[in-house]
Write a structure and sequence with these properties.
The protein has 168 residues and is mainly α. 92% of the residues lie in helices and 0% in strands. The protein is built from five helices and no strands. Helix 1 runs antiparallel to helix 3. The radius of gyration is 20 Å and the shape is elongated. The relative contact order is 0.16.
């Protein structure tokens, strides 16, 4: 098994996830501007600010993940060549932490936020409140979708690392 290839593939997947986050960020930005420009109701015009905020946050997340993945991709061969055992140990620790973060954030906290926003919609009457809550639901749904996909890939990568560690 080639751990350098597996780690490089994981870094490429992180870069692809970043690109997907950035694409959704652009979609949120364009949707917000479209609602503002062509919206005929107070609610549709109220979507501008929340959609712009969500779009900018997704763009920042996407660019950050892309840059992080790019730097990791460049560093993997040299790090593995310098000390393979330390590389495996560090990668196992990193993947375990990330899997725990996904378990807490993407599968517990984000759904709870979505539920709270959905429960608050009938009680908050203004168009800006409702636009903000609906945008938050859409934002956290995007985060869950992308993170659940990344979680599945990370579990596969973790399994490859475990098999490599067992063979050394």
């Amino acid at each position: 098994m080639d751990i350098v290839k597996a780690a490089s593939d994981w870094a490429r997947f992180e870069m692809h996830s970043g690109a997907v986050f950035a694409a959704f960020g652009l979609a949120f930005l364009l949707a917000g501007l479209g609602f503002r420009q062509w919206g005929g109701t107070d609610f549709s015009r109220a979507l501008l600010v929340p959609m712009l905020v969500a779009g900018v946050l997704l763009l920042i997340l996407g660019v950050g993940l892309g840059l992080l993945g790019q730097s990791r991709l460049a560093a993997v061969p040299a790090t593995y060549a310098s000390d393979a055992t330390a590389f495996l140990t560090a990668e196992l620790a990193r993947t375990d932490k990330m899997l725990n973060d996904y378990r807490i954030l993407a599968f517990r906290l984000f759904p709870a936020i979505i539920a709270l926003c959905a429960l608050a919609i009938p009680f908050l009457d203004g168009p800006y409140w409702r636009a903000s809550l609906i945008t938050a639901i859409a934002l956290f749904t995007v985060l869950i979708l992308i993170d659940s996909n990344a979680n599945a890939r990370l579990q596969d990568y973790r399994q490859q690392l475990s098999m490599a560690e067992a063979s050394t």
